[in-house]
Write a structure and sequence with these properties.
Chain B: This is Ubiquinone biosynthesis monooxygenase COQ6, mitochondrial. The complex is a heterodimer of chains A (300) and B (468). Chain A is of the alpha/beta class. Chain A is 46% helix and 13% strand. A six-stranded mixed β-sheet of chain A has the order 1-6-5-2-3-4. The chains are: A alpha/beta (300), B alpha+beta (468).
C-alpha cells in the first residue's frame, strides 16, 4: 500500500459529524423568491472562486451575499426551513463528474488498484461511523453492533463503505448516479448471502428518492461526495430531509486548504499518480467552516 | 464450464507479487453451497484451539466457522490411569490463550504438572545453565496431548451454534479465488471434501501439520530439511517419589535427552538421537532401556581434561566478577522402570513456509513451521500464531472488513514470522552446535553456556521470549 497516499489524505482531511438533532420542520414559505435566490446563489458561488486566497474567501462570500441578497437575510431571520424547496428539484449531480467515474466503474474492488486510497481509508471511516452510532444505540448486540440501524450511503460508488456497514449489522441503502457503479456494487455483494439481504443498491440521485424516503434513516453517510456535487446547499438539505429526527449525518471530504491543494491535487494526481487526473478540482473542496455555515442557520 | 486462467495475469498487480498462483478456476453461477466465514482445515491441537478461540471471540458471534478433522471424534469418558506418552510443554503465554476460552479450567480439573526449574547441561563438560523464575513461579506446564484435546473438544461443544465440527472429513481439493473480481466468478475459496460435497469460505486457515495440504495446494514454498535424528518418547517410573518439579535436559553428542515431570513418580522421556540408535532403543528390552537412560544422564565418559580445566578457569573468573550463587550440577532422579508399550519413535525435521498468508488463506502451527523438540516450543509457537491471528481477525470483524483481506493477514504474517524465524534459527543453531564433540566447538559452547548462566538479565530475556 502506498503509505504516502494515505498521509496526504489524512493531512488535509476533516471528518464532520453533525447530529443528533437534524430536525426538519414542516412550515412552508413563498417559493418564487426562494428559487430565485438559489439560482442567484449558484452564480455568486462561481464568482467567488479564487484559489489560494483562502483567508479572504469566506469574507468576500458573506459580503456579496449580504449585498445582493438582502431579501434572503430577512427570510433567514424568520428562520424559514429548508423544506420550502420541495418542489424545486435542483440537480446536484455534476455530469462531468459522472463521466470521470464512469470510466473507472469496474475498478472499485481491486484493493491495490486505483481505488486503493479509498480502501485504506475504510480503516478510518468505518470505526468513526461505528463508534459515533454506538453512542446512540442503548444496547448493541456483540457481533452485529449496528443491527437495527437504517443507513443511507449517498454516492456509494462500488459499495466500498456500504459493505463494511452492512457487515456490522446495519440495513444499508446505497445510491449512486452512475449506473455502472451500482452494477459493480450489486455484483460484488451478490456472492455474500448475508450482505445480499442487508444491502440494497439503487442507481439514482439523492433528489429522486428524497420525497419517498423522508425521515426514514437513522444515519446518512456522504463520504468523499461533497467535493463532487454541483449544489452543496441543496445536497445537504436533502440529506437532512431524509434523516429521522435525532439521526446523524456523516460527511467526510478533503478540506479546502493550501496543504490539500499541494498534496491532494499536485502530488497525488499530477506527480505520483495515486489518484487519476481530473478526479478532484480544488475549487470544489469544502472546508469544515463552510459545512458548518450551511447547516447551522437552519438549526441542524 | 470452468475455464483456467493463465498465471501471467499476476503481472497486473506488481505491488504484491506472491509467487505463481496455482491455476484458478472460474465458477459460473452461484451455487447453493453454504458460505462459511472461516474454515479451519485440520483438527489437531492447533486447529481445534483456533476454532475454539474464534468461536469464543465476541466479534464472531454471528459468524459461521467450520472445523474439518480427518480423524474420528475422540471421546474421553474417564481419564485413564496410565499417562499418555505424547506430552507437550505449555508455556505461560499458551496457558493464557487456553484460559481465554475456558479450556485451561478443564485441564486443571483433569491433570497437568507445573515445573519451576529447568536444568540444561552438556555431556562433554561441566557447563550447565539453570533457568528459574525469581519467586519460583511456574515456568511452564507439562500436559498430555490427549488432555488438551479433550479440553478443546469440550469448549468447542460449548459454542456449537457458531462452530461446526466435521469429523472424518478431509479436504481433497481447493479452488482459489481469482486475484481480481470478475463477473460471475465467486470470490470465495471452494473446498471439495472426500465425500464429494463442496463448500465455500471467505477465509481458509491451514492447520494441517507439517505436510500441509493447504500449503501445497496454494503453492507456497516451504524451506525444509530432515534431521538425521528421531525422537523416542516413553513414560518412565522414577525409583523414588520426589517433588519432581524440574525439567532436565542433557545434550549428548548424539542428541539431547530430556526428562519432563508428570507426577511425583512419573516422568516423560524425549530422547532425540540417530535413527539407528532410536530404533535400537525402542526394540531393546526394558531393563537395558532403563540402564541406557540412567547412564545417558549420569555418565561422564565424554568429558575431557582439557575442557574440564578450561571450564573451571572460566567459572573461577566469573566468581571473581560477581558473587553468584553457585549452581552446582544436580542430577536428575533415577529411573526405575518404563511403562509397558509406551515407547514410540518419530522422525525430526525443520520446516518453514516462505509465506504464511495468501489472499483468503492463512497457515498456522506446524503447517507454517516445524521445529526440533529440544526447546519445547513446537506447540507454543502454534498457540502464539493463534493469539496473533485471532487478534487481527477480531479487529477486522469489528471494523466490518472482509475476513480474507490481505490487509490484516499480512499484519499477522509480519508479527509471527519475526518471532518464529528467530526461534527456528536459534533452535537449529543449538542442535548443530551440540551435535558434535569436536574440541573447539565444545570449548566454545562450554564457555558460552557458563557465561550465559552468569548473566541473569540475558537468562531472563531468553525465558521471556520462550514464554510468549
Amino acid at each position: 500500500m502506498w503509505g504516502g497516499g494515505k498521509l496526504s489524505y489524512f493531512g488535509g482531511r476533516f471528518l464532520g459529524v453533525l447530529g443528533p438533532g437534524c430536525r426538519s420542520s414542516q412550515t412552508k414559505g413563498p417559493r418564487l423568491i426562494s428559487s430565485a435566490v438559489y439560482s442567484k446563489n449558484q452564480l455568486s458561488w462561481t464568482l467567488e472562486i479564487k484559489p489560494g486566497v483562502f483567508n479572504e474567501y469566506r469574507n468576500m462570500w458573506f459580503k456579496s451575499y449580504r449585498m445582493t441578497f438582502s431579501c434572503l437575510n430577512r427570510m433567514k431571520s424568520y428562520r424559514y426551513p429548508w423544506t420550502r424547496l420541495y418542489s424545486t428539484s435542483q440537480n446536484t449531480v455534476d455530469s462531468s463528474e459522472v463521466k470521470t467515474f464512469l470510466a473507472l466503474a469496474h475498478k472499485w474492488w481491486d484493493e491495490q488498484g486505483i481505488y486503493a486510497p479509498l480502501h485504506s481509508m475504510n480503516d478510518l471511516r468505518v470505526p468513526f461511523i461505528r463508534d459515533n452510532l454506538l453512542k446512540v444505540i442503548p444496547n448493541h448486540q456483540p457481533g452485529k453492533p449496528l443491527s437495527g440501524m437504517k443507513i443511507l450511503d449517498v454516492g456509494c460508488g462500488g459499495g466500498l463503505l456500504t459493505e463494511p456497514l452492512g457487515r456490522l449489522g446495519a440495513s444499508v441503502i446505497g445510491i449512486d448516479p452512475v449506473n455502472e457503479n451500482i452494477k459493480t456494487a450489486q455484483c460484488h455483494k451478490s456472492f455474500d448471502p448475508v450482505l445480499d439481504q442487508r444491502i440494497e443498491y439503487r442507481a439514482c440521485s439523492l433528489e429522486e428518492i428524497v420525497e419517498d424516503t423522508a425521515e426514514t434513516f437513522d444515519a446518512v453517510v456522504a463520504s468523499e461526495v461533497v467535493e463532487h456535487v454541483l449544489d452543496l446547499e441543496t445536497f445537504l438539505q436533502h440529506c437532512c430531509q431524509v434523516l429521522k429526527p435525532g439521526g446523524s449525518l456523516f460527511v467526510t471530504t478533503i478540506n479546502k486548504t493550501q496543504l490539500s491543494y499541494a498534496l491532494g491535487i499536485v502530488f497525488s494526481e499530477q506527480i505520483a499518480g495515486i489518484v487519476p487526473k481530473g478526479t478532484h478540482t480544488w475549487e470544489k473542496f469544502v472546508s469544515p467552516e463552510k459545512l458548518e455555515s450551511i447547516l447551522e442557520p437552519s438549526k441542524y | 464450464m470452468a475455464a483456467r486462467l493463465a498465471v501471467s495475469r499476476w503481472g497486473l498487480a506488481p505491488a504484491v507479487y506472491r509467487g505463481p498462483l496455482v491455476s484458478c478456476r472460474r465458477w459460473s453461477g452461484a451455487s447453493a453451497d453454504t458460505v462459511y466465514d472461516v474454515v479451519v482445515s485440520g483438527g489437531g491441537l492447533v486447529g481445534a484451539a483456533m476454532a475454539c478461540a474464534l468461536g469464543h471471540d465476541i466479534h464472531f458471534c454471528d459468524k459461521k466457522i467450520l472445523l474439518l478433522e480427518a480423524g474420528p471424534k475422540k471421546v474421553l469418558e474417564k481419564l485413564s490411569e496410565t499417562y499418555s506418552n505424547r506430552v507437550s510443554s505449555i508455556s505461560p503465554g499458551s496457558a493464557t490463550l487456553l484460559s481465554s476460552f475456558g479450556a485451561w479450567d478443564h485441564i486443571c480439573n483433569m491433570r497437568y504438572r507445573a515445573f519451576r526449574r529447568m536444568q540444561v547441561w552438556d555431556a562433554c563438560s561441566e557447563a550447565l545453565i539453570m533457568f528459574d523464575k525469581d519467586n519460583l513461579d511456574d515456568m511452564g506446564y507439562i500436559v498430555e496431548n490427549d488432555v488438551i484435546m479433550h479440553a478443546l473438544t469440550k469448549q468447542l461443544e460449548a459454542v456449537s451454534d457458531r462452530v461446526t465440527v466435521l469429523y472424518r472429513s478431509r479436504a481433497v481439493g481447493y479452488t482459489w479465488p481469482c486475484p481480481f473480481t470478475m463477473k460471475d466468478s465467486s470470490p470465495w475459496v471452494h473446498i471439495t471434501l472426500g465425500d464429494g460435497s463442496t463448500l465455500q469460505t471467505k477465509l481458509l486457515i491451514g492447520a494441517d501439520g507439517h505436510n500441509s495440504g493447504v500449503r501445497q495446494a496454494a503453492g507456497i514454498q516451504n524451506v525444509s530439511w530432515n534431521y538425521d535424528q528421531s525422537a523416542v518418547v516413553a513414560t518412565l517410573h522414577l525409583s523414588e517419589a520426589t517433588e519432581n518439579n524440574v525439567a532436565w535436559q542433557r545434550f549428548l553428542p548424539s542428541g539431547p535427552i530430556a526428562l519432563l515431570p508428570l507426577s511425583d513418580t512419573l516422568s516423560s522421556l524425549v530422547w532425540s538421537t540417530s535413527h539407528e540408535h532410536a530404533a535400537e532403543l525402542v526394540s531393546m528390552d526394558e531393563e537395558k532401556f532403563v540402564d541406557a537412560i540412567n547412564s545417558a544422564f549420569w555418565n561422564d565418559a565424554n568429558h575431557t581434561d582439557f575442557i574440564d580445566s578450561a571450564g573451571t578457569m572460566l567459572q573461577y573468573a566469573i566468581s571473581l566478577l560477581k558473587p553468584t550463587k553457585v549452581s552446582a550440577r544436580q542430577l536428575p532422579p533415577s529411573v526405575a522402570s518404563v511403562e509397558a508399550k509406551s515407547r514410540v519413535l518419530f522422525p525430526l525435521g525443520l520446516g518453514h513456509a516462505a509465506e504464511y498468508v495468501r489472499p483468503r488463506v492463512a497457515l498456522i502451527g506446524d503447517a507454517a513451521h516445524r521445529v526440533h523438540p529440544l526447546a519445547g516450543q513446537g506447540v507454543n509457537m502454534g498457540f502464539g500464531d493463534i493469539s496473533s491471528l485471532v487478534h487481527h481477525l477480531s479487529t477486522a470483524a469489528f471494523n466490518g472488513r472482509d475476513l480474507g483481506s490481505m490487509n490484516h493477514l499480512t499484519g499477522y504474517e509480519t508479527d509471527r514470522q519475526r518471532h518464529n524465524t528467530a526461534l527456528l534459527a536459534a533452535t537449529d543453531l543449538l542442535k548443530r552446535l551440540y551435535s558434535t564433540n569436536a574440541t573447539p566447538l565444545v570449548l566454545l559452547r562450554t564457555w558460552g553456556l557458563q557465561a550465559t548462566n552468569a548473566v541473569s538479565p540475558l537468562k531472563e530475556q531468553i525465558m521471556a521470549f520462550a514464554s510468549k
